[in-house]
Amino acid sequence: MRKSWLRDYIIKRLLYSIVIAWGILTITFILVRVGPSSPADKYLANLAAKGHDPAQVIAAIEARYGLDKPILQQYGEYMLNLLQGNWGWSLSTSMPVMELIKRHWIYSFQLILLSSLFAAVLGILIGIYSAVRQYTKTDYAFTFLSFIGISIPNFWLGVMLILIFSVKLGIFKTYYDTTLPLFSLANLKALVLPVITLGTGMLAAYVRYTRSAMLENLRKPFVVTARAKGLPEHVVIGKHVFRNALLPLVTIIMFDLGSIVFGGAYLTEIVFGIPGLGQVSFNAIFANDYPVVVAITLIGTLVVLLVNLTTDIIYTYLDPRIRYD
Amino acid sequence: MTETPKAIAKDRAPLSGGGLRLIGYYWRRLTRNRLAVFGLAFIIFLALVAIIGPFFTPDPTEVDFEAKNLPPVGFTITHSTYDIKTDQFITTRVSGNWKHPLGTDRKGRDMLAMIVSGARVSLQVGLLATGIAIIIGTIIGVMSAYLGGWVDNALMRFTDVMMTFPFFLLLVLIVFIFGPSLAFIVLAIGLTGWTGTARMVRSESLSLRTREFVMAAKALGAGDGWVVFRHLIPNVISLIIVIATLSIPGVILAEAALSFIGLGDPTVPSWGIILEEGQHSLTTAWWVAVEPGIMLFLTVLAFNFLGDGLRDAFDPKSSV
């Protein structure tokens, strides 16, 4: 009984995600087509200076990119190309955009993974502690600190960490080295400051989420029952309260991916010169490399979509109380 | 917090709808939160600095050739310059002076003047972009809740699509495509940042729509316009104020971050642009990166404190 509605629900969610993905691709297409500059701009000035007729250059480039075709046909080809994994050609790095993404995504992934682990472990522990000791001085201190952590602009924090640790104290002066293995000691050392930079805002947010999720459950009758049974306090907190607080917590944390984490990772990579997708997009902006900037925004969005879908499905599996109809 | 019964009675919400008395009631609840008061005070101070500050500081684009990389008052640094005649490095000690209280950057521009004009830019961006986002979000939210049916469906699916885009990545794409002018950055933030507001206003309006006073108004023959403007919007206004206050810091940070990665308006000295410049002169002039960052941080902190305080003050369930 439960199994069949679960399957129906998952199919429904999948179809819905496809609709959303279609919306995302369409909006991106419209943005690029409505925009005032085109891929032709980069070469126009260059070739015109060499004595080519500008009108001819524009016509040639438009034909090359299919910009002279009817808009609906362009839209159809754009969709088809994206579905086939043909994401365009990066002019500044002379390789397919897909290849560029394949080479660099792992560095972004590593940074986000390590920062999330750091933030989630520490944030949940502090949040639980704060909730259990509600209205004590430590709770107030942590609440105040979490306000500060949320308010610190993460790129500025990165610059300040470089100033203090690299420039003044002369430690952590290492830079990320792509020739070394991902999890080599040198690269992990180079990631200490970036992880703190990206992780601080997340950590502060997780402290607040955990604290309020714990407090909500701490007042429920089943906690009184558990205590009345004579269970030790750490079992009450760890097993009864925390387990119930965990699910909504995971959802919020996953939801933060698009709003906080991706933007933060983009900036952190630029500050510390980590060769992830943020850095790639940053370089592409200066090279006016259209397809790369578009592709990286799209990739980020599709990852958010996928993570939301997965979270939703896992949630329904883990919490038997939930039924979506 | 212990209170005498008299004090509690004094600030119980008035039963009749005296607007001023209600504002007074919320004001008392808000000012009991010390952090919110600090936030409000800092924001007022910043607004004053942004409005009248530029009349007292020099032109931020004016260059003082005699005083490049001058540290703030109270700090001394050693400059080392290469002397071509003697082929040696000469180290000179330079101290900050009151002519440039916050020092100067590598071009010799006065930091105080730049910070003050940056305050103007940041506040303008924060208020305008948030205003646009809130208006769009409220219109979509109320329309969705009130009209229901396929309009609700279409609007909410569109909101879902917009929500899936990572906010900053979408912003980067739009500003990259349309070019970095300040007016456009404001518009771009406003046009992308309305989704949260739309969702919250919609769910609040949905619950309001079925309440007795709305049904009573309808039974008495009130039209859609009357119900929306007389009953729905006034009742979501406190929610909107809280969302707006808590969105402003995100907007200010978004503009600063765009400027920081080179997608800011190069003609306007915003805090993000100063910070971007300072990042490259960390070894010679650390204060250029430190000062705008502290201002950004304090501004964001102040809005977060105030927003949190407002949320508690408006929430009848919370005991402030």
Tag the structure with descriptive keywords.
heterodimer, A: 325 residues, two-stranded antiparallel sheet, 13 helices, B: mainly alpha, MetI-like fold, two-stranded antiparallel ribbon, 12 helices, elongated
SSE order and pairing:
The complex is a heterodimer of chains A (325) and B (320).
Chain A: H1 2-34, H2 40-49, H3 54-65, H4 71-83, E1 89-90, E2 95-96, H5 97-132, H6 137-151, H7 154-168, H8 185-190, H9 192-218, H10 221-228, H11 233-272, H12 277-286, H13 290-318
Antiparallel strand pairs in A: 1-2
Helix pairs in contact in A: 1-13, 2-3, 5-6, 5-9, 5-11, 6-9, 7-9, 7-11, 9-11, 10-11, 11-12, 11-13, 12-13
Chain B: H1 5-10, H2 19-31, H3 34-56, E1 76-83, E2 88-95, H4 111-147, H5 149-164, H6 167-178, H7 182-192, H8 195-209, H9 212-219, H10 224-260, H11 271-279, H12 287-314
Antiparallel strand pairs in B: 1-2
| Portion in strands of chain A | under 5%
For the biggest sheet of chain A, the summary is: 2 strands, antiparallel
Order of helices and strands of chain A: HHHHEEHHHHHHHHH
Write down the overall geometry of chain A.
Answer: globular
Number of domains of chain B: 1
What is the CATH topology classification name of chain B? MetI-like fold
Could you name the ranges of chain A where pLDDT drops below 50 across 5 or more consecutive residues? none
Widest sheet, order of strands of chain B: 1-2
Spatial sequence of strands, sheet with the most strands of chain A: 1-2
CATH architecture call of chain B: Orthogonal Bundle
Briefly note the structural class of the backbone of chain B: mainly alpha
Order of helices and strands of chain B: HHHEEHHHHHHHHH
Strand content of chain B: 5-15%
Give me the number of helical elements of chain B: 12
Q: Provide mean pLDDT of chain B, rounded.
A: 83
Radius of gyration of chain B: 25 Å
| Head-to-tail CA distance between termini of chain A | 14 Å
CATH class of chain B: Mainly Alpha
